[in-house]
Specification:
Elements lengths: L2 H6 L7 H18 L4 H4 L5 H5 L5 H4 L10 H22 L1 H29 L6 H4 L6 H8 L6 H14 L4 E4 L3 E4 H18 L2 H20 L8 H18 L21 E3 L8 E3 L13
Antiparallel strand pairs: 1-2, 3-4
Amino acid sequence: MSPFERKFGKYAIRNLSFVLVACYAVGYLIQIFDRSGLVSLYLNLNPYAILHGQVWRLVTWVLIPPSSGGLFFTLIMLYFYCSLGTSLERTWGTYRYNVYLFQGMLFTIAGSFLLMGYCYLFKPTFPLTETLTLTINTPYEYFGYIALLFSTYYINMSIFLAYAATFPEAQVLLMFIIPVKVKWLGVIYAILLAFQFLAMPVYGKFVIGASLLNFIVFFFTSRNMMHLNPKQIHRRQEFKRDVRKNTGITKHKCAICGRTEVDSPQMQFRFCSKCDGNYEYCEEHLYTHTHIKRP
């Protein structure tokens, strides 16, 4: 466990995938009732508007779902990414999964501001004006349309790539019929993404680069986890549990109920900084116990 996890792990959001999917559901409802699209324009990641006081956009852009392909495909998409995220959280732990998702969001936000800086320095023409025949007169409108490029689509793709790297032998049903190992889907997506990066203008390069940076950081800091799969993790946990039972030695023990990691393998244990002495508590008694003070 890293020092950061010891300090901030208690703030990690459990079942973060469900929270993210709930945000998408709210975004879909907004799109259904807001046919004009005016509400969405005030929610997207417009860096120019953020610097001019609309700071809520730093959070609300997560409400804008990746795409809308009808109710059925929307439900399938929400279920699919929720399932992937839940599997990653169970394997990595809540804290690490939180760091991965929020890190991706921060990289996306940083990418939007870097792109705005690039536009101010080099003043390129907006790439969508020719196809959409748009008239852009103000910086707010200019960066508002650039903000459309930054969406939760790449957040979902980073979850998929991480899942493919962590569970390469897992199978999914392509088109609900053809069983395919997820590692091959990850390779295909990575190749397509590389072609898109080379073919797209500089705007697209900023967007794809910001999205890939999250996975690249994950890959180089977690290479020792790439070979793991759920069966191997289960065997390791069983082996460690048997070793502790045979030796009678445990690393953690709650000072209130006496439970150890052998009794509850999924239980989190923490030391209390307000107690005088090295007293450790399980997650159920960490915030409810009476602090021990020396006379």
